[in-house]
Structures are given as C-alpha cells and as structure tokens.
Amino acid sequence: MRGTISIISLACFALAGCGGNPLTGSEDAWTTGPSDDAGGGSAADAAVGPGVDAGGTGSSDAGACPVSCNGQCVDARRDPANCGQCGKVCGALEACVAGACQANPEWAHWPLPPDQPTQYTVAADTVTDQVTGLVWERKVTTTECTFAEARAWCDGLRLGGLTNWRLPTRIELVSILSTGNGQPFVSASAFPAYYYVASLYGSSALNAEKVWGVRYDMGWFSWMEIADAASTLGTGVRCVASTTPAPASAHYVVGSETVQDNWTGLLWDRGGSTLRRDHAEAVDYCATLDAGGFSSGWRLPTRKELESIVDTKASGELLSSDFDRDCWTSLTRQWDYWTSSPENSCSYTPGCFWSINFQDGLAEPRNADPSAGVACVRCVR
C-alpha cells in the first residue's frame, strides 16, 4: 500500500459526464486542489473576479489560453502575479486561491481539529467546519475524470451560493479525518460518501506532478504519479472553498530549542529525539521533556498536528530546515515519527498509533508493541 493508491471508479460528473457543465447546482460534483503554477488546466477564458469561472462551463479545453496578460498565457485563478486579473500581485505571505489573494492553503492557518471532529454545520449540499472555516462539498459522485477535468469541474462549481470552489490541499483533507473509531475515517453524518480524495502535489508540469490521496475507508494517506494530463485519477474528489485571510506574521519563529508555529499556535520541540523509541517510551519522553524554558506541558502530537508541519513542496525531505532532523538507528537516518492518535481497527495488541514518514509523506498505523515497533519522536505543546 505504501506509495500507491488503489484505483477505483469514483466522483466526477454524474449528471453530465466528464467535461460536463457543473453549474447545475447538483450536490454531486468533485473538487480540485490549488497549484502554484500559472499554467494548468483551468477552464477560464478571460480575467474575472475571485471564484468566477469565465465562460461558466467547467469544461476543460487543453488548447485554450485561460487568460492573456501582456501577451502571456496565465491562469488568473492561481497565478500570484495575475490573481483574478492581469497585474494583481499577491503579497509575500499570500497565494492566489480561486482568483483571490489569501492565505496559502498548503498550510494550516487555523487550530488543528481534534482526532474526531464534530463541529460541523451541515446543509443539504455543503458542510462548514467551524474550527477551520473551510466549506466542503458534502457529496461525491461516481465517474472517473482526468486531472484537468477534475480541476476544471471544481473551478466551475456553483454550490451553496459559493463560486470559489477548488481542489483541497493535503492538510485540508487531513483536517476532516476522523481517527480512533475505525471505519469510516470521516464523519459519516456530515459526509455520507467517504472515498479516496485527491489533491495536487507540487507545482511542476502535469506529467511530473504527484497527487496526494486519503482513503476515508482506511485513513491511509499516500500518493500516486500522474503519467500524463490524460490520465484518470481513479479516485474520488470533494471540492472545498475558503476565504482565509493572509497571515499577519511569518510562519515559524525559530529558537535554539523550539519552533513556534504562528499559524496554528503550536510550539514544537525543535530537536526531537535522536533515537527511535517504542510508543510508551515516546509518551514518557515528551512528558519529561525540558525545552525552551518549559519543563512541563509537552506531549506527543496528534496525527493532524504532526501533518501540519509536512512541507508538501519540499524536495528530498518533507520537513522545514527550521527543525532539526537527526534521528538515527546505528548509522541510518530515520524519518518516521509517532503520533498520539490511535488506529483502533488494527488487530495488534496493545494496539496501533498513526505515524508520519517525513521522507515520503506517508501516514500509516504502527504497532505499539515494544517488541514490534519503534519510531522517532517530536514533541509539541
């Protein structure tokens, strides 16, 4: 399972088929995730306001230029130098999201929801997360589409009175995971269809991109390669909308022993353990940690908290260099880190806890038996 996502037929255009018109108000549609690139599969035909897909068809035309600015073809929904219109430049701490400059959705700019989130406002077609402020498409459909068709569908979706729909990012997908109670790994009352969901990884050309996905029937996070722009994702998708303002301060404040995340409010142990430990030892390590002037209050992070420092745009290692990354077994560098979030559907005794691998970004359950599983430790408070 590591490094791949099984292919199943899921959501796209139930009423019109791939490339059809999403402007029907149907609650069945699918979502696309943001990209930093200025190229990229948008169906827009002219410079338009935030969240508005010019032409309004949601279809994909690979040969069309979305927007022309000074003779250059740009995507005004995603280009930070021409965001929503030619010449509109987003600030240093902003990204161009659905044609508006706002907080970069590749990172959490909100408190991390608990392992089992319940603070949802559920409407017929949408779900609003009261913790993150994200608005989700509630249902998915059952037709495969290419990546370009998927992104164009979300770009053109009109649902719940909103026009700024897009594909979710990895951390946004993580935010609605519900771990600890077994299947499904998402609130079944808020989200009645829980399938694979994919979001864009990276900002290179389509044939070099990866797509992150999470299996909401298993809680696994993994990725698959897109061979070319005509490839079908074979995964379900669910659109998201956001209006998160740009942050007022830089992401991290780095001290000698700690890293303060200004966007989530979490304080991290900068160094982490240099040796791998079993889960019980990891809990004790954090409980007794004395770092950054704090001799108490440290703990193992939840899965969502640890996922919040995964840098999906990094190369080689998916963790900012602001964190020390020296965890070893003998002379071998290690990448996997414990969380406090249980995975109760595993058959092992005394149970399993989720771990995150910062080399490949994969999340998977790990046996907590001291004789079977050890991992690195990074504490939070």
Task: Write a short abstract of this structure.
With 381 residues, this protein is mainly beta. The protein has helices at residues 147-156, 170-175, 279-287, 303-307, and strands at residues 67-69, 72-74, 94-97, 100-103, 120-122, 126-129, 135-137, 165-166, 196-201, 210-215, 221-225, 240-241, 252-254, 258-261, 267-269, 328-329, 332-333, 336-342, 352-357, 363-367.
Determine the mean pLDDT: 76
- The fraction of residues assigned to DSSP E strands is 15-25%
Instruction: Outline the biggest β-sheet.
Output: 5 strands, antiparallel
Question: In percent, how helical is the residue content?
Answer: under 10%
H-E order: EEEEEEEHEHEEEEEEEHHEEEEE
Strand order of the largest sheet: 5-6-7-12-8
What Rg, in angstroms, do the CA atoms define? Answer: 21 Å
Spans of 5+ residues with little confidence (pLDDT < 50)?
A: 1-18, 21-63, 195-208
Estimated structural class: mainly beta
> What is the subunit arrangement here?
single chain
Shape: globular
Q: Based on DSSP secondary structure assignment, what is the total number of beta strands?
A: 20
Q: Please count the helical segments.
A: 4
Spatial gap, N to C terminus: 32 Å
Provide a descriptive summary of the structure in words.
Helix content is 8%, strand content 20%. With 381 residues, the chain is mainly beta. A hairpin with a 5-residue loop joins β14 and β15. The longest helix has 10 residues. The radius of gyration is 21 Å and the shape is globular. The relative contact order is 0.15.
List keywords for this structure.
381 residues; mainly beta; five-stranded antiparallel sheet; three-stranded antiparallel sheet; 4 helices; disordered N terminus
